[in-house]
Amino acid sequence: MTQSGRRLTSTDVAPERPLASLADDVRAGLLSRPRWLSPKYFYDDRGSALFEAICATPEYYPSRTEAALLAAHGREIVEYAAPDHMLELGSGSSRKTRHLLDACDALGQGCTYWPFDVSAQMMLDAGAELVADYSWLSVHALIGDYTGGLANVPLPEAGRRLIVFLGGTLGNFEPPAATAMLEQIAALMRDGDRLLLGVDRVKDTATLEAAYDDAEGVTAQFNRNVLRVLNRELDANFPVQDYSHRAVFDRDMARIEMRLAADHAHRVTLAALDTAIDIEAGEEIVTEFSHKFTPDTLAALFETAGLTIERHFEAEGGAYSLVLAGKANP
To answer: Would you state the pLDDT for residue 2?
Structure first.
């Protein structure tokens, strides 16, 4: 454990199972057909800054809509969950979490905040601001990759936990992996604990595709940035600007697919992997899935994972959902 002030501490959390490296994922994805890359490699410093810019575009409604739901229902969520500990998976800058902390402040519901993310510096910077703004708050940052499992999360045994998983991130998992993720969360929960999950909803194709292909081209830059990461980390030579960004909603699969399409045929060398691949003109690399949900598919997902929906907060027109769930009775 490292410590930075009595109310701001951090712990490295070891994964409970081996995690694939960048090289492992690139070998698995780029050497297969169709080609794919894991979206977790979007988020280097440049990619993280570009994602913040995406959230400010007129077309990208999910962040704004989720934040509005948290602002409108934060007090009800905190009253119902009454958390002594708040664990947030993929916390990032903890910006939206402030709505929940504001509700805790108004209700006199003291709690310890446990942000869990791979970016130690981002969490410590955000934590320093939080403990300065909330005199009653302690922040214990958990540094690690939550996709490696939750068994080593050092939460205290005593007290109620509210596990927070926002941003529609569950939608980036393939359905079996999404179920497995919720099952891991359920295994961490005890009677009285709650999960707060934010998920995007199925809606008209135009709105969905525009959210992932904004007019300013910020999302296109973000998508192509993953190739910059490969060029830097694997000594590759992707011609980054010679790939076109595409965002397509597959209604049968209920998901947005982000892709990079090669503008012309070329050979890419990945020196760190001692390999080269030939990319055809128009060939696509899938870089992200973002699954969308209906009330029925949400209910089925929670039931399969051993969780029960107890509160469901919906944006106007069913555009987005915040779901508060408890562990199902055995």
So the answer is: 43
Q: What is the DSSP string of 276-330?
A: EEEEPTT-EEEEEEEE-B-HHHHHHHHHHTTEEEEEEEE-GGG-EEEEEEEEPP-
b vs e for 187-203, b when ≥16 Cβ sit within 10 Å of the residue's Cβ?
ebbeeebbbbbbbbbbb
DSSP three-state, residue 8: strand
Torsion over CA: 215, 216, 218, 224 (sign):
positive
Closest to 169 measured CA to CA, from 286, 60, 90: 90
* Residue 290 token pair: 């973002």
Residue-wise DSSP of 133-193: H-TT-EEEEEES-GGG-STT----SSS-EEEEE-TTGGGGS-HHHHHHHHHHHHHH--TT-
Rounded to whole angstroms, how far apart are CA atoms 62 and 53?
13
> What is the band of 4 on the pLDDT scale with cuts at 50, 70, 90?
very low
Could you give the CA distance from residue 269 to residue 238 in angstroms, rounded to a whole number? 8
Q: What's the rounded mean pLDDT across residues 209-221?
A: 98
Residues in the chain: 330
The Cα–Cα gap between 304 and 182 comes to: 9
User: Which pLDDT score, from 0 to 100, does residue 3 have?
Assistant: 43
As a whole number of angstroms, the distance between CA 206 and CA 248 comes to 10
∠ CA 245-37-224, nearest 5°, is 30
- Which CA distances in Å does 288 have to 215, 240, 244, 278? 19, 17, 15, 22
Q: What is the pTM of this model?
A: 0.94
Token output for 130: 């939080």
Return the amino acid letter for 275. T
- The label of the residue with tokens 């959230």 reads 55
Confidence of residue 5 (pLDDT cuts 50, 70, 90): low
Q: What pLDDT was estimated at residue 330?
A: 72
